[in-house]
Design brief:
This protein is α+β, with helices and mostly antiparallel strands. It contains three helices and eight strands.
Length: about 160
């Protein structure tokens, strides 16, 4: 019995995905597709935008409720935070700041076997009202071919202090 349980445990852990990496987001209304990176810090997952897919310039965070942050860029700044892995392919309890309206939303992520994610965002913590977006995981060849250069991670981490709760 112990052997079967151990084998099952190994099989589950082998199917577990790693959320870290670069993804291409989906566009929605006025929001452009962007390249984002997920990273793990202090046992939680975070994400920041690297650049717009169409190579258009970064915009200012003009809708931020904190007037002191309205001149910062919408790239290289953590916008998704406090996401925790609750099962091999499910991440919950995250929040995302939306640069387009200055509001914060709730996030749950389901990762597929091919590493793409279903990014579910909602206006309420129960997830009653929300929308799911498909974000594509990018491999290293795509990242190199499209010249996706990440900013300095120390600079990205400094933006964690700007998160308002």
């Amino acid at each position: 019995m112990k052997k079967i349980f151990f084998i099952a445990l190994i099989a589950i852990s082998l199917k577990s995905q790693n959320l870290e990496g670069i993804y291409q987001t989906s566009s929605f209304w006025w929001q452009k597709k962007v390249f984002v990176e997920f990273f793990k810090f202090n046992n939680k997952y975070y994400a920041y935008a690297i650049k717009n897919i169409d190579n258009s310039p970064a915009k200012k965070d003009s809708h931020n409720p904190n007037p002191e942050l309205r001149n910062r860029s919408d790239k290289g700044v953590v916008f998704l935070y406090d996401l925790i892995q609750v099962s091999p392919n499910v991440y919950e309890n995250g929040k995302t700041y939306n640069f387009y309206d200055g509001k914060t939303y709730y996030v749950k992520i389901y990762q597929k076997d091919n590493k793409d994610i279903n990014f579910f965002v909602s206006i309420d913590p129960t997830g009653f009202i929300g929308k799911t977006f498909l974000w594509k995981h990018l491999d290293n060849d795509f990242i190199k071919e499209n010249d996706i250069e990440k900013p300095n991670m120390q600079d990205v981490l400094k933006t964690l202090s700007d998160i308002n709760e």
